[in-house]
Structure formats: C-alpha cells, structure tokens
Amino acid sequence: MQIVCPNHLEQFLHSADVNPLRKVPAIVHGNFNLSERYPTDVFRRAKIQSVLDWHHSNLRYGADHYVINTVLGPALGHPLNPKAASEAEKVLSSSLSNLEKIWLNGNGRFLLGGSQPSIADLSLVCELVQLEVLDEKDRDRILSPYKKVVRWIEDTRAATNPHFDQVHNILFRVKMKLQHPRSMDAEAGTETSSKMGRHSKM
C-alpha cells in the first residue's frame, strides 16, 4: 500500500476493523489487526509494556494532578489546592527519579536504552511536556535535578519534530495565554514596590 496515495489509504482504513480511529499506523496480517506500532521483539515489547503500565499510576498521576492543582484549576475558576498539589509533587518527584535511574539507565538516548523513540517514549514525554504551562521557575525547580530526563525530552522532541511541536501546539498556546497575566502581575508588583520605595524615602 502507498500511504501517500489517498485512494490506497482510504481503502485500507475504510473499515473500522483495521483501526477504529481510521488512522495509521495499522497492519492487517491474516485475521489479526493491530492499530499501533510495537517492537517486533517480544521481550522488548514486554519491557515497553511494563513502562506503559508503570506510567499511568506514577508519572501521569503526578504530572496531571500537580498541573491541575497549581495552574489549570485556578485558570478555570477553581480554588487552589495546596495539599493536593504537594501530594502530587511527591509522586511526580519520585516518578522522575525512577525514570532517570531505571528507565533511562542505558546507553541509548531513549527509554530502555533504545536508539529511537518507542510508543513508551511518546506516551511518557507528553506527560512532562504539560509542565510547560507552569511558571518557568517552578518547572525548572522540578525538572532540573534530573539531567537525563531533561536531555531525553529534548532528544525525543528533536527525533519527532515537526510532528512533536504540531501535536503540542495547543499546549504551547495555553502556556503563552497563562504567562501573559503572570508577566502583567510581575510588572504591577515591581511598579508597586517602586512607588512604596519612593514614599518610604519621603
């Protein structure tokens, strides 16, 4: 099949049995259909599956709950929840430590010592990209202790661009929207401090 040929692609994905999302990657082998890309080596596939299973209740939980309870919640009109944010940060920090010491403990640039990104790299890196909406100092405080993780994020981005930036475009737009009020608040705070300083001298 020629993916670049619209007719071929339309015929291949016409049936939802091939891929319910009607997208590639997808493969049909006899009576077996697979709609995602996994390594052909069963042992590596099992290891990648173990990373994906770990990810849901660790990295995803920590990153999601921290962002929601510090930035996104208040932006949507919900009150800050410092206790929930603190608990989420503990999970996130522990997850980042395990990510650095275990999953990135190899000679390759990607998870499990891989030479190219796998579905596990793509799934996990997306959780950390959402930290972009945090205040820059807060994001650096959380990520900077984990040099391998920071390098891995950049390597995954470089290996998958321009698609990486296209997929996360809406997130980057949210980041810019959230940063604008912060910069205005910072400027207002600086101006207020300056005025107070002048008044105190009088």
Q: How is this structure best summarized?
A:
This protein is mostly helical. The chain contains nine helices and two strands.
Give descriptors for this structure.
202 residues; mainly alpha; Glutathione S-transferase Yfyf (Class Pi), Chain A, domain 2; two-stranded antiparallel ribbon; 9 helices; 3% strand; globular; GSTT1/2/3
Structure explained in plain terms:
There is one protein chain. This protein has 202 residues and is mainly alpha-helical. The chain folds into two domains: 36 residues, no CATH class; 140 residues, Glutathione S-transferase Yfyf (Class Pi), Chain A, domain 2 (Up-down Bundle), CATH 1.20.1050. 66% of the residues lie in helices and 3% in strands. It is built from nine helices and two strands; from the N terminus they run αββαααααααα. A two-stranded antiparallel ribbon has the order 1-2. α3 runs antiparallel to α4. The N and C termini lie far apart (80 Å). About 2% of the residues have low confidence. GO terms for molecular function: glutathione transferase activity. It holds the Pfam family GST_C_2.
- What is the percentage of strand-forming residues? under 5%
Q: By helix and strand content, what is the structural category? A: mainly alpha
User: Which sheet architecture does the biggest sheet show?
Assistant: 2 strands, antiparallel
| DSSP strand count | 2
* Count of the domains: 2
Second CATH tier, the architecture of the largest domain: Up-down Bundle
Shape: globular
> Could you report the average pLDDT, rounded to the nearest whole number?
81
Catalytic activity: RX + glutathione = an S-substituted glutathione + a halide anion + H(+)
Domain GST C-terminal: 41-178
Organism: Pisum sativum (Garden pea)
Protein name: glutathione transferase
